[in-house]
Amino acid sequence: MDPDQDWDRSPRRRRRRDPGRDRGRPIPVPRSAPAKDGGAAPAKSGAAAPAKDGGAAPAKSGAAAPAKDGGAAPAKSGAAAPAKSGGGNKKLAEIARGSSLNLVGALVAAVATLGSTVLVTQVFTPPVAGVFFSATSLFLIVESVASLGAYTGAVYFIARLRLLGQEGRISAILRAAIIPVVVASVTGAAALLIFAGPIASGLSGGHLESGGASPGAVATALRALAVTLPFAAMLDTLLGASRGYRDMRPSVVIDKLARSVAQLAGVAIAVAAGSAALLAPLWAVPYIPAAAAAWIWLRRVRRSRPSLHAIPPEVAALLALATPVRADGTKLGPGESNADERLADANPRGFWRFTTPRAIATLAQITIQRIDIVLVAIIRGPRDAAIYTAATRFLVAGQFGNAAISQAAQPRFTELFAVGNRREANLVYQATTAWLVLLTWPLYSLALVYGPQFLSIFGRSYNAGVTVMVILAITQLVAAACGQVDMVLITTGRSSWSLANGLLAMVVNVSIDLLLIPRYGITGAAIGWAAAIGAANLMPLLQLAFSSFRLQPFGPDSLLACALCGVSFLAVPLGLRYLLGNGTVSIAAGVAAGTLLLACGLWRFREPLQLSVMPGLSYFMRRSKARSAENHSP
Fold first, then answer.
1. Structural contact between residues 506 and 368, judged by C-beta atoms closer than 8 angstroms
2. Apex CA 367: angle with CA 364 and CA 371, to 5°?
3. DSSP state, 66?
4. Residue range 276-287: average pLDDT?
5. Are the C-beta atoms of residues 459 and 122 closer than 8 Å to each other?
6. Please, which residues bridge with residue 9 across strands?
């Protein structure tokens, strides 16, 4: 029988189907029935069974046994089991390893950010602290513009080309990403140098002379930030390329660990010297060695990662078989039109066609995160900007956890959508949403319950930010329950949708800020940010749910995670605060009781929450099962 012929197995009749009708469609990956140990059991048709090293062991016949119609017979399950699928567990385990590594870096980065904020607010006056926070926020906005969102395109295209066995095209993609970023960042640095004086006057607002700083000192700090701008933009791009190779170590070691700790050390030196003028320069200097280290590490990663590294052989074979065909069933050649549409946009033009909307969306995101501080400094003065920054530091620390999971999951989502495996992508989406809730809800909940006590570490003058903390804590609880919704939307190839969502959220944020900040101050800024966060999460959530992808984060695992965290860190601390008051004993008891209750819940529901794939815990569970089997053996 001609293997290029396809037959319709209808119960009434068999008829030949035109092979051209399926032109360009990828062949779906066969599903394997789950084995008792959580791995994939070989299908009866002779599908490949997983080998001990994680790869696929060939079937005894050396290939999948053909079914009676000439195709590969599917396994009886017909689809991957939601929780026990071997492929699903493998993907989740890979994401868990990357996320766990990222979480270590995210924890260090969050502590370093919080530590820098505490040092500045404890030593310098609120006006000086506010100028430092607004200047660095402006620097990060300009850096986002200069980076052009190229890191997202680098992750997407490098992961995709490696999956398709086209690693030779990656060099062109890297050149297309790096050169425009260099040009844009140098231009941005020049603009910041030229306009440092007027910007400093706007940020100071005439409030600094009595606070121990001057507009001239602020302008000098802005010029120091401008010098490091190209290095910061290149750092993001190079780390994105490394993540495309599925190597999370550079992002963690260089950016989250080394750079964050070096920035904290720089701020500590400026604080010890009592010099406000040194704060911004010493905070920005670590971007220079970090960019150099990222470049060196990327070169090592490219030499050590061969094409199709860690790609299952069965997936590579299916991708090769999915080449478009003519109407007569013969394959199209590489020089013919529409040959392999999956690679048609893997060039500089296609790179920027994908990345340009994402660059604007990235600018919108960083604007939403930082523009409030700048606007508060300009409209209400640096003192209010310092209070607003302190009130949002705990909430921004939670965003590091979101970034940790998103960076690890993005290449995996790209691969799943590249082979059309939407079912497994939805399962991964729901599992990672549960992990995000477990990671961030405790922090947001404690900020909601113990807001005044948390703010007291910055000083008594910062207690005015309690209302800001409550508004944003509630907002972030809702946002975390939506998962990495924007990242998932991007990996489906809908970067233009992400652009529209980001622009809408930015317009909402700035409009409400300009309307409410003059009258309500930092509370108006918090309302504007909360509205923008809601728009940025609910819009892509609806687009994924009601589009052809049919993806949504609300599964049994994510809802269970919400319930566990809500009881452990909302209900229990609130009850103890009512009984014991607002003192240190109440806080310690609430945190301890919530942590213990959550730990017990995580162990009890470790299987539904997919925690068994977490590094360390999976090894412990295997040892526990082995001991249990030994105890029950005769």
1. yes
2. 155
3. B
4. 90
5. yes
6. 14
**DSSP assigned state of 450:** S
Phi-psi region of 359 (alpha: psi -120 to 50; beta: other; left: phi over 0): alpha
Specify the pairing of strand 49-50 against strand 56-57: antiparallel
Structure tokens at 140: 């990060």
Alpha-carbon distance of 431 to 415, in angstroms, equals 17
φ, ψ of residue 47 to 5 degrees: the values are -65, 160
Distance of CA 409 to the CA centre of its chain: 7
CA–CA gap between residue 139 and residue 214 (Å, rounded)? 19
Confidence of residue 613 (pLDDT cuts 50, 70, 90): low
What is the rounded distance in angstroms from the CA atom of residue 83 to the CA atom of residue 474?
30
Using CA atoms, how far apart are residues 250 and 298, in angstroms rounded to an integer?
A: 8
Q: 66 with 23: CB under 8 angstroms?
A: no
Nearest to 473 by CA among 440, 515, 428, 522: 440
Task: Name the residue with tokens 């309302």.
Answer: 527
Q: What is the DSSP string of 349-368?
A: HHHHHHHHHHHHHHHHHHHH
Whether 344 shows a pLDDT value over 70: the answer reads no
Residue 476 has which token pair? 């972030």
**Secondary structure of residue 484 in the 3-state scheme:** coil
pLDDT at position 292: 94
| Res 170 pLDDT > 50 | yes
User: In the numeric block, which tokens belong to residue 321?
Assistant: 């078989």
Mean pLDDT value across residues 339-363 = 71
Structure tokens belonging to residue 485: 């919704």
- Provide the 8-state DSSP code for 312: -
Pairing of strands 14-17, 6-9: antiparallel
Contacts from 560-564 at CB under 8 Å and sequence distance 24+?
560/434, 560/605, 560/608, 560/609, 561/433, 561/434, 561/435, 561/437, 561/438, 561/441, 561/609, 562/437, 562/441, 562/481, 564/438, 564/598, 564/601, 564/602, 564/605
The answer to whether 158 touches 168, Cβ cutoff 8 Å, is no
What is the identity of the amino acid at 627? R
Q: What would the pLDDT profile of 262-279 be if each residue is shown by its tens digit? A: 999 999 999 998 888 889
Q: Check pLDDT > 60 for residue 253.
A: yes
Residue environment code for 434-448, b if the CB has 16+ CB neighbours within 10 A, otherwise e: bbbbbbbbbbbbbbb
